[in-house]
Design goal:
Two copies of one chain form a homodimer. Chain A is of the alpha/beta class and 229 residues long. In chain A, 43% of the residues lie in helices and 16% in strands. Chain A has two domains: 103 residues, Rossmann fold (3-Layer(aba) Sandwich); 101 residues, Rossmann fold, CATH 3.40.50.
C-alpha cells in the first residue's frame, strides 16, 4: 500500500512509510485547508505527512477555555494517528496544547509548534520578540525563552487565528512586528500558526532584516532532526 | 569561479555561492581533519561549507584559560571568513566561545554549536542531560536550558576533546550517558564537538532510546533554517 501524504479527511489508509502526523487545532471540513501545514513541511523538509483536525473548534485555540476544551481531543487524535502509523506527531499550535499529556500518551516523539519555535529562536538570537494573537506570549513559549524573552505584541484587531486572514490582518502583523524590533528584539517568534497559513515570514524578514521563526517550520525542523542520523 | 566546499587550509578562493563558514577551535595542519565538521553538515543539510581553524590550540578549548585565549582569534577568523563570502558563520565549539562578540563583529548570522544544541534539546525534550568534557555544563548551554537542565556528566578520564579519541573514550561516553538517563534525562545534549568527531550519536540513541542532540548537527540545523524560506 502506498502512503497518502497529507490525507486530510475521513478514514485514510495507514501510512506505509514513516510519516509525520500533523494535528490541526482549527476545525475544518476542507481537506486542502487541513493539509496545508503538512504540505508546507513536505515541501521544506521532504518527509511525508498526514493531517487531521480536532472536532468542534471552528475558531481554533484563542483563550484558556478554547485551549482546555481542545486538550482531550488532541490526546485522543494523537493516539489514533500513532496507531495508524505516525512515527512523529506535531501539534500544530503555538500554545502547545496538551503537549506534556500527549507525550505521556504515545510512544513516538511529540513536537509542539510553540516549544519548537521558542527553541529555534534561542538558537538564532538573544532578544526574542513574540508576535501572536494574545496579549501575553503562550506560557509554553515563555517558559522555554526564559530571560531571553523581550516582549509580546498582538496585531491590532486580531484576536483569533481566523482574523489574520481578514483584509486588515497582514498589515496589522507587519506593524506589530516593527514595534517589536524597534523595542529591541533581534529575532521574532510567530506565536500563532495562522501566521504560517498567511505565509508572512518572508515579508517580515525582508522588511525588518531579523530572523523570523515560523512555528510550523520550526516544528518541522525539529522533526527533521529526529529523522536523520 | 566555482566554490570550494570544505576548503580547509591556506588561502582558499572566495566562495562564489552562499556558503557556511565553519570555525574550528582545535588547531590542526590536516585539511581533512579541519574540514570534518563542514563535510558532515554538507552531507546532512546539503549546503556548501568552508572550514578554518584558529592557530595555536592543539588541545582545543577545555578550560577558562584556553577559552579566553581563543576568543580574539575566533572574532578575527570570523571577520576574515565573512569578508571571503561566508553568509553564515558556525563556531563549532559547544562552549560558544566569543559568540556574542562575533555576532557584533560581523554582519552575517553567527551560530554557536552549544547554543544551537541547547535550543534543539528544548524543542525535543523536557529534562535535558548534558554530556561534555567539563564537570559543569558550558555556561552558554546552561543559560539557554534554564530550569530544563537536569545535570551534567563528564566521561571518566576525559578532560580534553582529544581524549575522546583514545581507546577508553567511546566506552566512557556510553557509560556516562547511561548515568544521565538513569538520573531522569529524557534528552541528551552532547556538549563537546569532539563527540561529533567520534560519531557517537547513533550508538547512544540505539543504546538509550532517547533523542541525542549533536552540537555540530544542531548548528547546521539552525543554519538550514535561516537558508530556506
Amino acid at each position: 500500500m502506498q502512503p497518502t501524504p497529507s490525507s486530510a479527511s475521513g478514514p485514510s489508509p495507514m501510512p506505509a512509510v514513516p510519516t509525520v502526523g500533523i494535528i490541526r487545532v482549527l476545525t475544518s471540513d476542507d481537506p486542502t485547508a487541513i493539509a496545508e501545514h503538512g504540505r508546507l513541511l513536505e515541501r521544506h523538509y521532504g518527509f511525508p505527512t498526514f493531517s487531521r483536525c480536532i472536532p468542534g473548534q471552528p475558531y481554533g485555540i484563542h483563550d484558556q477555555e478554547s485551549e482546555r476544551c481542545a486538550e482531550p481531543k488532541i490526546v485522543a487524535l494523537a493516539r489514533e494517528m500513532a496507531a495508524e502509523g505516525a512515527d512523529t506527531i506535531i501539534i500544530s499550535c503555538a500554545a502547545d496544547p496538551a503537549l506534556e499529556r500527549t507525550r505521556e500518551a504515545v510512544d513516538v516523539p511529540v513536537l509542539g509548534a510553540g516549544a519548537a519555535a521558542a527553541a529555534v529562536s534561542l538558537g538564532l538570537g538573544t532578544r526574542i520578540g513574540v508576535l501572536g494573537i494574545t496579549d501575553e506570549a503562550p506560557p509554553g513559549v515563555r517558559a522555554v525563552l526564559g530571560d531571553r524573552f523581550t516582549g509580546a505584541v498582538r496585531p491590532r484587531e486580531v484576536r483569533r487565528t481566523t482574523d489574520l486572514r481578514a483584509p486588515h490582518g497582514a498589515p496589522a502583523v507587519l506593524e506589530a512586528a516593527a514595534r517589536l524590533v524597534e523595542s529591541g528584539a533581534d529575532t521574532l517568534l510567530l506565536a500563532c500558526t495562522g501566521l504560517t497559513t498567511i505565509g508572512i515570514r518572508p515579508r517580515l524578514e525582508d522588511l525588518l532584516a531579523v530572523p523570523v521563526v515560523d512555528a510550523v517550520l520550526a516544528a518541522g525542523l525539529m522533526a527533521s532532526y529526529t529523522r536523520t542520523r
